Amino acid sequence: MPLNIEDKKAVVAEVSAQVANAQTIVVAEYRGITVGDLTQLRVKAREQGVYLRVLKNTLARRAVEGTPFAELSQHMTGPLIYGFSADAVASAKVLNDFAKTNDKLVIRAGSYDGQVLDSNAVKALASIPSREELLAKLLGVMQAPVSGFARGLAALAAKKQSEEGAAA
Q1: Which keywords does UniProt give here (predicted)?
Q2: 136 and 121 in one domain?
Q3: From 112's CA, which of 43, 68, 83, 151 has a CA 20 to 30 Å away?
């Protein structure tokens, strides 16, 4: 059933709100994917904070009009699913990981930081660790000297206690 003009305006407004908060948009062709597989993809996307939506391309073009993602409009043809994320790599990672296990999902293009990315660039973006992973690694690096110092003190204290125990 076709959407009336009010429904179309509502969809464009909803997607525009997602675009305003997004750092990255990834578009992928989903031709031939089963409903069950698409549901699994949506669940994974939701877990990662990715807004995933199948849209009419004309509505998607209107939503990105006048934004840094406007150049992506040239890639909006055919049956596409759109992934929007505030995290720079989340949408690329979710769609790329799913495409590895399901050959019917084909990543077409993406946009990050005002730059249009081809499918290879989206895959490269997906290989970058997420913000949370990078923060965890940084915290581990920062804690290493402190924990090493604490282990050294504990070993020194244990050695001193064993020496005092042997002397007594």
Answers
A1: Ribonucleoprotein, Ribosomal protein
A2: no
A3: 43
Helix ranges, 48-130 (H): 57-64, 90-101, 119-126
- Whole-angstrom distance, CA of residue 48 vs CA of residue 15: 18
Quote the tokens at residue 45.
């996307």
Q: Which residue has the tokens 């997607």?
A: 15
Q: What is the pLDDT along the chain (168 residues), one digit of tens a residue?
A: 577 888 888 888 888 888 888 889 999 998 888 899 999 999 999 998 899 989 898 888 899 888 888 888 888 888 999 999 988 888 899 999 999 888 888 999 999 888 888 888 888 888 887 777 778 888 887 777 777 777 887 887 887 777 776 666
Do 91 and 85 meet the contact criterion of CB atoms below 8 Å apart? yes
Give me the residue label for tokens 């305006």.
Answer: 9
